[in-house]
Amino acid sequence: MTDDGDAAAPPHRTPSQLLEAARVVLDANWLGASTKPSPTLYPHQWNWDSGFIALGLATYRPERALREMQTLFDAQWLNGMVPHIVFNEAGLGKYFPGPDFWQVTRSPHAPVHGLTSGITQPAVHGFVLQMLLARGVNADAIRALVTQVMALHRYLYRERDPDAQGLVYIRHPWESGNDNAPTWDGPLGRIDPSVLVIPPYTRQDLRHVDDPRERPSDRDYDRYVHLVDVARSAGYDEARTRETIPFQVIDPAFNAVLAWSSEALVELCTHFGMDAGEPREWVAAAHRGLETTLWNESLGRYDAIDRVAGERIPMVAISSLIPLVTGAPSPAHTQRIVDTLRSPDFSGTASDPLRAYPSCARSAPTYDPQLYWRGPTWMNTSWMLWHGLRRHGHSAEAARLFDEMIDMVQVHGFHEYFHPSVNLPASQRGGFGTGGFSWTAALLLDLLTP
Ligand code: 9WN
């Protein structure tokens, strides 16, 4: 059984019932100083989840929205990194890997309590703070957080862009947030778990989903664990880790989120009378990197780059289209992206429509509408594309996407991810992963609250 709460179960017929149910989800997952992504599968604070969650909280509990972000940034490392998990003591032992596995105090930069992971996640915080400010969250507190977000972006450009090309790399699939995307298959495929010494571990995640097929395989988990082991063996020193870690990928979505946040930092710095010169440089470099290095003219989308193999990765994942959310794409590139979104791969056909864009192209051999990041639709990627469509003037497509996102939650409830097909047989489940999922609820609140 998934851990969906009854109060939040579908169907929610009216918008006000839906809004109320979304608040029930967020309130139930509130831990006192932050919000867990779901009741049992994810019992701690996750980095980019908290950004999306804060946007939902800001619509009805602005003080909690601020607390959410402050708690996350209280765990910021001295080198500026914001960890992908901040562990909540009450949840220890319920999620793998926990702090005893990460052992982050091997790094002189980690918080002394050691209750964090040793990797990061997409840097959503700049644009989140800008949106919180627009929703009336305390401006002085936001100004203080802006300084911390600047330190995070400095860390990313200093440690993850060694060639100074305006594009940063990730060193673990979990850093992408799109953890099981086929994009990582090539780089992960180089790691042969059968010849590795993998530290012993027990997965907890499979206890909380209806079907293990909705989660990554054990073989993938062995590789995830190995990558953690490589970084911790290097004491989380970025330069040393770079010498040995077999997974280093430049992901268009990670870089697009960073660029969007840098754009927001320019606005925030200007608003607060702070120097906007540095974020302006980040924006220019990121736009250049996306448009000149990652753009693939023949496919009309952005490629990822495998730094270790020195190869481009042919992309079938939604992350190849997420740069639409930035100011980078030219009008011609924008049109190509929108054409791809409207194609049967991402919108289906008249007789077999897809809702709110799946996480992978339907024609890809790896497409699986039920498997975590390999086909299902996720609310946060759809929400980012909605912003991108509006920003670049595609308001009709944005309006259609808006309706589809609401419809998806109305039909299936507050799940983690969703079957993209609209025409599902009545006997077929459409909501997957965990239920009671915070960012699904939060982004719905954000969408429905003008
Ligand atoms: C690993 C919490 C997180 C999200 C990620 C999503 C999933 C974790 C997991 O859950 O990742 O970080 O155990 O699968 O892929 O995007 O932040 O909701």
Overview of this structure, please?
The structure is a single chain. The protein is mainly alpha-helical and 450 residues long. 45% of the residues lie in helices and 4% in strands. It contains 17 helices and nine strands. The strands form four sheets. The chain has a three-stranded antiparallel β-sheet. A two-stranded antiparallel sheet has the order 1-2. A hairpin with a 4-residue loop joins strand 4 and strand 5 (301-302). (2R)-2-(alpha-D-glucopyranosyloxy)-3-hydroxypropanoic acid binds at residues 37, 42, 46, 48-49, 84, 174, 177, 179, 205.
Which descriptors apply to this entry?
three-stranded antiparallel β-sheet, 17 helices
